[in-house]
């Protein structure tokens, strides 16, 4: 689809790619009205007018430029908002970044401005989702002493949580896997690396590892945890509305205490 | 570990669950080398029970045997309940096993009084010590000190625990004597003071030597049972405020009395636990600690009890219409905080953004201000509509009570409990 002023750009859907895109905009003095990932383009009705090639040097220069103009926290916010993967998030980000570069005064705390406030709100949602991984991830111990957990976060927030797990579980091997995006991180007591399973012994409907690779004590610990969870509830205070608000149904699948 | 432990876990969790202080915040303990765990400063909830309460710690009793007979307690010696105890080894294994699976942030251990206070306290200290030294566990540990235990044991407990609590339970001494004849305020205040001194000394030492041992780094807390005795909210809030000021407590928890022992003449006959009142107390506590309110602004001789229909901030504003409206574009932070419908976060956003220009009501709404409430108490860029100052008091009260009731029993439950801990992150 090509209408009068539309200008569709495509990129590789990485953060580096997006920063390279910003660089190109300023270099060729053109700004897209639509930004799509290469694969998204195939299923859309748009045609590409320009393709951005990811370039580490360009990306670094833009990132440096941002860090000079705004606080570290606001820079992080840009990355978080990118991870939301919301529709047309690239346009919001581009507009925000342009405002930062183009306006003479620092606008990062001007919450009277709608896009500044919108960034803040999305940032909050993304951080909240990352926090929920930290809260709700349940590790299952395998026979070869790896603690495995799968999760299906709404946003692509796994990278925001690995530092926490590395610090906390430094003396155990673990894997956290995003079943929705089909990738995860593996920590082997020394290093952490990104992994993708081609074949796995994890049941996709429950996120549970197969009994054949489960550690001996695993089922007993699950039982213990369920018993604890049920006993800790005060019946006089039961409040399903509150329960659901704090622990929405979409997380139940991977929660040991909710598996019957 | 075997199947017997399942039964023990069930009994001892059931006995411990009425203690509401579940927070695990306040410590930043990093993983030293290759041990297990750390404690995050913002207290992580790992699950929520069906009653909507945060599950952060393995909250359990070492034993529910007890030689005391407190009227409000399910484990009192005159009750015919199943009794059991966990061994030190069983407790540490449970804690570590749960922790490694990311079920919990750590352990919250309390106990009935077995034989005598010291006998019990020694066992509790032993659990904490083994976790820290044998298992190199850096997660969160909260120990509830046993009333009457020796100061040496309390001090030792403080070297391993992140938090210690000494529960006051009943807000006035006369009522405590009535309901828990074996306990006294002296037995409660002595360990509290000793912990306070320990914390202060350790802070001083650590200024001089970084390696000086930490002592109860997450501070101490206490719990008050609400509605088991006739004490007024004014008495309760005055007590809380003095505990914060004089004992430098980190938290006071309020626990609506759950009628576990029916038939005891000393206790009121309740059908439901006083959850709304409990929530109003949490809200008031919040106002004391973060909004700069004094107790006498929330309750007074004339109004010794909190209004159950209105939250304490709104109720304060309606009793003091002459102080409003507040000019959003000019007023100090402290005054903006006093406006019903404006929280800590939106007050911050207001202060930060008004430097760039005047704010209007649409922008306020976007910043999270609840305009349905706030509009009667503020002026912003536009001309203000009718404000509370021009209304008759009966009318303004009606306005809000009706609105709140029509929201259809949005029972607050313990929402507050969770939020309280989280707001720390913002500060
Ligand atoms: S001392 Fe504690 S466990 Fe024993 S009866 Fe009193 S409140 Fe219950």
SS class of chain B: alpha/beta
Helix tally of chain B?
16
Q: Count the beta strands of chain A.
A: 8
CATH class categorisation of the largest domain in chain B: Alpha Beta
CATH architecture assignment of the largest domain in chain B: Alpha-Beta Barrel
Question: What descriptors fit this protein?
Answer:
heterodimer, A: 260 residues, alpha/beta, 5-stranded mixed sheet, 9 helices, 44% helix, elongated, B: alpha/beta, TIM Barrel, 6-stranded parallel sheet, two-stranded antiparallel sheet, disordered C terminus, binds iron/sulfur cluster
Question: What do these coordinates show?
Answer:
The complex is a heterodimer of chains A (260) and B (427). Chain A has 9 helices and 8 strands. With 260 residues, chain A is an alpha/beta fold. Chain A folds into 2 domains: 122 residues, no CATH class; 122 residues, no CATH class. In chain A, strands 4-5-6-7-8 form a 5-stranded mixed β-sheet, with helices on one face. In chain A, strands 2-1-3 form a 3-stranded parallel β-sheet. Chain B is of the alpha/beta class and 427 residues long. Chain B folds into 2 domains: 264 residues, Alpha-Beta Barrel (TIM Barrel); 111 residues, no CATH class. Chain B is 42% helix and 9% strand. Chain B has a 6-stranded parallel β-sheet. Bound molecules: iron/sulfur cluster (SF4). The site of iron/sulfur cluster has 9 residues of chain B, from loops.
């Amino acid at each position: 689809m090509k209408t009068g002023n539309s200008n569709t750009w495509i990129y590789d859907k990485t953060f580096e790619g997006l920063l390279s895109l910003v660089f190109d905009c300023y270099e060729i003095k053109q700004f897209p009205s639509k930004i799509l990932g290469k694969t998204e383009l195939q299923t859309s009705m748009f045609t590409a007018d320009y393709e951005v090639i990811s370039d580490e040097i360009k990306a670094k220069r833009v990132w440096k430029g941002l860090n000079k103009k705004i606080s570290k926290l606001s820079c992080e916010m840009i990355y978080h908002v990118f991870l939301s993967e919301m529709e047309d998030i690239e346009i919001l980000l581009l507009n925000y970044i342009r405002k930062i570069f183009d306006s003479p005064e620092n606008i990062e705390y001007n919450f009277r401005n709608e896009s500044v406030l919108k960034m803040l709100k999305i940032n909050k949602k993304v951080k909240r989702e990352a926090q929920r991984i930290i809260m709700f991830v349940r590790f299952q111990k395998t026979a070869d002493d790896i603690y495995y957990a799968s999760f299906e976060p709404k946003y692509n927030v796994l990278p925001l949580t690995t530092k926490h797990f590395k610090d906390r579980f430094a003396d155990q091997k673990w894997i956290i896997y995003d079943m929705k995006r089909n990738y995860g991180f593996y920590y082997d007591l020394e290093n952490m690396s990104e992994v993708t399973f081609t074949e796995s012994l994890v049941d996709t409907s429950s996120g549970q590892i197969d009994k054949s690779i489960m550690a001996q004590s695993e089922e007993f610990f699950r039982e213990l945890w369920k018993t604890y969870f049920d006993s800790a509830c005060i019946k006089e205070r039961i409040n399903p509305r509150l329960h659901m608000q704090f622990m929405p149904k979409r997380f139940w699948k991977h929660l040991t205490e909710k598996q019957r | 570990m075997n199947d017997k432990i399942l039964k023990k876990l069930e009994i001892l969790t059931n006995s411990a669950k009425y203690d509401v202080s579940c927070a695990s915040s306040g410590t930043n303990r990093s993983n030293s080398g290759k041990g297990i765990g750390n404690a995050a400063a913002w207290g992580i909830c790992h699950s929520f029970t069906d009653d909507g309460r945060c599950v952060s710690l393995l909250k359990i009793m070492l034993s529910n045997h007890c030689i005391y007979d407190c009227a409000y307690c399910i484990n009192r010696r005159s009750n015919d309940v199943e009794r059991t105890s966990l061994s030190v080894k069983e407790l540490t294994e449970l804690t570590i096993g749960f922790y490694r699976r990311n079920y919990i942030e750590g352990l919250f251990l309390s106990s009935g009084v077995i034989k005598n206070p010291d006998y019990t306290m020694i066992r509790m200290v032993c659990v904490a010590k083994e976790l820290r030294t044998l298992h190199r566990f850096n997660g969160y540990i909260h120990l509830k000190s046993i009333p009457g235990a020796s100061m040496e044991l309390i001090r030792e407990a403080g070297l391993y625990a992140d938090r210690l609590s000494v529960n006051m339970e009943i807000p006035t001494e006369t009522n405590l004597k009535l309901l828990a004849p074996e306990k006294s305020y002296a037995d409660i205040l002595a360990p509290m003071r000793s912990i306070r001194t320990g914390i202060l000394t350790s802070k001083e030492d650590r200024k001089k030597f970084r390696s000086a041992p930490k002592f109860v780094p997450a501070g101490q807390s206490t719990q008050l049972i609400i509605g088991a005795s006739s004490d007024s909210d004014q008495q309760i809030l005055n007590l809380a405020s003095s505990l914060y000021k004089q004992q430098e407590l980190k938290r006071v928890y309020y626990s609506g009395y759950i009628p576990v022992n029916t038939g005891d003449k000393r206790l009121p006959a309740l059908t439901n636990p006083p959850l709304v009142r409990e929530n109003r107390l949490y809200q008031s506590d919040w106002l004391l600690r973060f909004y700069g309110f004094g107790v006498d602004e929330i309750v007074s001789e004339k109004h010794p009890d909190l209004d159950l229909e209105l939250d304490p901030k709104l109720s304060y504003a309606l009793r003091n219409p002459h102080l409003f409206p507040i000019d959003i574009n000019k007023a100090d932070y402290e005054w903006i905080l006093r406006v019903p419908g404006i929280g800590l976060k939106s007050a911050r956003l207001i202060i930060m953004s008004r430097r760039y220009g005047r704010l209007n009501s649409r922008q306020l709404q976007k910043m999270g201000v609840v305009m349905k409430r706030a509009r009667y108490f503020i002026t912003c860029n536009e001309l203000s509509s009718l404000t509370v100052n021009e209304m008759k008091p009966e009318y303004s009260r009606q306005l809000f009570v009706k609105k709140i009731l029509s929201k259809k029993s949005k029972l607050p439950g313990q929402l507050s409990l969770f939020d309280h801990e989280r707001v720390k992150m913002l500060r």
